[in-house]
Amino acid sequence: MPKRNNLVRRNIALSVIFKGMSVALSLLLLPLTVNYLSQVEYGIWVTLLGVLSWVNYLDMGVGPGLRNKLTEAISLDDVQAFKSYLSSGIVMIAGLCFIAVVVLYGVLQVVDLNRILNTTEVTNELLYYATLYTGIIVLFLFFLSIMDQVYNAFQQTAVPGFVGVVQSTLMVGFIYFLTRFNYRNMLYFILAFGISAILSKLGMCVWFFSRHTGLLPGFKYVNREYMVSLVSLSAKFLLLNVTCIFIYSSADFMITLRLGPDLVRDFDIVFKVFYFISTLYFFMFNPLWSAYTDAYVKKDFIWIRKTLRKTTLLIIPVILAVIVVALNIRLITRIWTGIELDIPDSLPLAIGLYTVGLYWLANWNYFINGSGQVNLEIIVSVIAAVGTAVLSWTLMPLLGTTGMALAMAIVVFLFGTAMCIQTMRILRENCYK
Fold first, then answer.
1. Which residues 6+ apart lie within 8 Å of 54 measured at CB?
2. Highest mean pLDDT range out of 18-27, 234-243, 310-319?
3. Residue 61 falls in which region: left (phi positive, over 0), alpha (psi -120 to 50) or beta
4. How many angstroms separate the CA atoms of 131 and 150, rounded?
5. Statement: the pTM of the whole predicted model exceeds 0.90
6. Residue 28 pLDDT grade (very low, low, confident, very high; cuts 50, 70, 90)
């Protein structure tokens, strides 16, 4: 238990440091992005990136399933199982990426992107190439994200945070160069994003396997039984991931469809301000996922209970931080972007409520995901996804973008309460065995 606590504390501390660096870089990157892209181009970019990044959720659940299996192999000191699960996961994700590329190319031949994205200010040709390039980049990053699960399994969750710092540094440099020499083209921006992200991810991969050559995957380690085992667990995470799209990642897309892309920018910028708060606590929860898996495998329920008590109390500083940000949102966004945003007074309150609700949900979800006991979570998440879609579609004509945020807030609070009850049930059942 002391070793597990030390790993968690070290990763949280390093993650906070790296996040602080990322925030500083974001303070530079967002104004550069806002000034480089037009308001409509910005709305299209974040919508495209958000929608195409859904592939990270639609991975058959292989990512989180692989994380749990790799963590279990490390906890049991089973090197052969580790290499077999990793190799099998790579083959499965590579197959998914190939299928996704074929589907994306086929779909782009027949759809009217101007109609889908609700805009006539950008040519269909530009939208075609922007979508194609973004899709290919996202899929390649999705494949490289396997390394995130490897580091997570080793309870070195701070490393992906450092990679994010490298990526943001490269991106700031590229966008400054493009702006400085007036190379203004949305496709240049997308390519800059892709090069920055891919180079940083590849560096993480090379660094790990240069220090752990005995863990190198290979086709000879692919194990059909392990793939079946991985699919069995991953299928549950797949259902969770599909519903997560509607609950967490559909806001920009829903606003584009219901209200138009011109309203996405201001919503997205306010959302990003509050996202800094949620990112900080997710850096705390991320190392806890694998720690919960390790503790659950070793039946250390005393440690799990103590940890959950501590993390639950931390919702108090989250609430205080949200209040401070909500009261000063106009000043923060003006200093950050250099422009005066058209922000409804109710929008920061609704997004702030969502930020608190997201903490409440994550507090229980990370334990449940780490334990693999996700059956009830699947059922509740399906209900929550439908609720988010219906409620936001109903509220947006009445409340504008605030309706989207309010719908998300209501759903995550109800979802989190259900997961709290499930967590108590799991702990009670195991403690009395």
1. 245, 249
2. 310-319
3. left
4. 30
5. no
6. confident
Residue with tokens 């058959």: 60
DSSP assignment of 293-314 = HHHHHTT-HHHHHHHHHHHHHT
Give the H or E element holding residue 255. helix 251-258
What is the phi/psi pair of residue 149, to 5°?
A: -70, -35
> Is the distance from CB of 56 to CB of 142 less than 8 angstroms?
yes
Pairwise CA distance, residues 431 & 326, whole Å: 41
- Non-local (6+) Cβ contacts of 81 within 8 A are 69, 72, 73, 226
- 330-356, pLDDT tens digit by residue? 998 888 777 788 888 899 999 999 999
The pLDDT tens digits of the residues spanning 351-374 come to: 999 999 999 998 998 898 878 777
Distance CA 343, CA 333 (A): 10
Q: Are 56 and 278 in contact (CB under 8 A)?
A: no
Contacts of 204 by beta carbon, 8 Å cutoff, 6+ apart: 144, 147, 151, 159, 160, 163
Q: Contact, 157 vs 287, CB < 8 A?
A: yes
Which residue in the block uniquely carries the two structure tokens 């996804």?
385
